[in-house]
Write a structure and sequence with these properties.
By secondary structure, the protein is an alpha/beta fold. The chain folds into 2 domains: about 120 residues, Rossmann fold, CATH 3.40.50; about 150 residues, Glycogen Phosphorylase B (Rossmann fold, 3-Layer(aba) Sandwich), CATH 3.40.50. It is about 30% helix and about 15% strand. The chain has 10 helices and 10 strands. The strands form 2 sheets. It has a 5-stranded parallel sheet with strand order 2-1-3-4-5, with helices on one face. Helix 6 links the parallel strand 8 and strand 9. The longest helix is centred in the first third of the chain and has 16 residues. It is elongated, with a radius of gyration of 28 Å. One of its GO terms (molecular function) is transferase activity. InterPro entries: Polysacch_pyruvyl_Trfase. It comes from Streptomyces sedi.
């Protein structure tokens, strides 16, 4: 029975799997499935360990080879022609840099996107639609040295990123640090808030990650990275926000629980908290009275007044 092996730059150990390449692959798979053409996909073990790889396959099992997307050049593609020399070899959705390059010349047919005739639309534009996934802002810090031996920041970051790796979401790492000179960072608070408004959920171990997410009505999964709790736990209490995990109790089960909650009832509560914050009060409202001109005879310092330090 005729069988096709589908390959691409995502098949090579030293290649790469881009979103466009994989979407183009999905388009080819969809076409082959609808045509009833049996096929397998070869993946780089660096991208999908345990999946079928080029070193695993027996070329004799295939009569057809399809190469999907990307430029046709380099020894890797030339090697495919050698190893699968008995197969009908077709490239689709590819760029032809040099028709005489062995990587390109070895194909029996090239359905190019550019470089060989009029350009055509990239295959990724026609890939079948799949369900959307949550867009998750990720805000973690390795700072806060002031907490000394109570710091759990490294463990928190390792646990969160390891868990996210197996979670269906689109992660968006960001930072609350502003920089008017660096075009890759927000330069104003409004720019950062505009980013936050477009997220579905935020996972953070920073106080302002929690506060600013709730300010714009986005649910947050908060982790207190300080043993025995510190300002994150205190702020979650002040905001009446339940999704806060003590760093010493952080694990994938708790992350999964609050993640599901944040994307369900937590989303509604976050919107309510945004309204509460817009209408609420804070200690700054006491400043005018405290800073009012002192009455005749001198003023007494306010209780608790004194020098303060900023904890980054």
């Amino acid at each position: 029975m005729e069988r096709t092996l589908v390959t691409g730059w995502f098949s090579f150990v030293h290649g790469e799997a881009t979103a466009g390449d994989v979407l183009a692959l999905h388009r080819v798979q969809d076409v082959l499935d609808r045509a009833g053409r049996p096929h397998d996909v070869a993946w780089s073990p660096g991208f999908r360990p345990g999946a079928l790889s080029l070193t695993d396959v027996d070329p004799a099992d295939y009569t057809r080879l399809v190469f999907v997307c990307g430029p046709l050049h380099g020894p890797g593609i030339a090697w495919l022609h050698e190893r699968f020399g008995h197969c009908l070899r077709v490239a689709v959705g590819t760029s032809v840099l040099d028709p005489e390059d062995p990587a390109a010349a070895g194909f029996h047919r090239i359905l190019a996107r550019d470089g060989a005739g009029p350009p055509t639309e990239d295959l990724a534009a026609h890939a079948p639609a799949r369900p959307a996934v949550p867009v998750a802002g990720l805000l973690l810090t390795d700072g806060q040295r002031e907490y000394g031996a109570r710091r759990l920041h490294g463990r928190v970051a390792e646990t969160v990123t390891g868990w996210l790796n197996g979670t269906r979401c689109a992660p968006v790492p960001f930072d609350t640090r502003l920089d008017a000179r660096d075009g890759t960072l927000p330069g104003t608070p409004e720019e950062l808030l505009s980013l936050l408004e477009r997220l579905d959920v935020v996972v953070t171990d920073r106080l302002h990650g929690l506060v600013l997410a709730l300010r714009v009505g986005v649910p947050a999964v908060a982790i207190d990275p300080v043993s025995a709790g510190a300002k994150m736990t205190a702020q979650a209490r002040a905001l009446r926000w339940p999704a806060v995990i003590p760093g010493e109790r952080l694990d994938e089960e708790r992350l999964g629980h609050w993640w599901a909650w944040a994307l369900g009832p937590g989303a509604r509560l976050a919107r309510k908290r945004a309204g509460d914050l817009a209408a609420g009060h804070d200690p700054a409202e006491s400043l005018p009275d405290i800073l009012a001109p002192a009455p005749a005879g001198g003023a007494q310092p306010a209780a608790g007044a004194g020098p303060s330090t900023r904890s980054r």
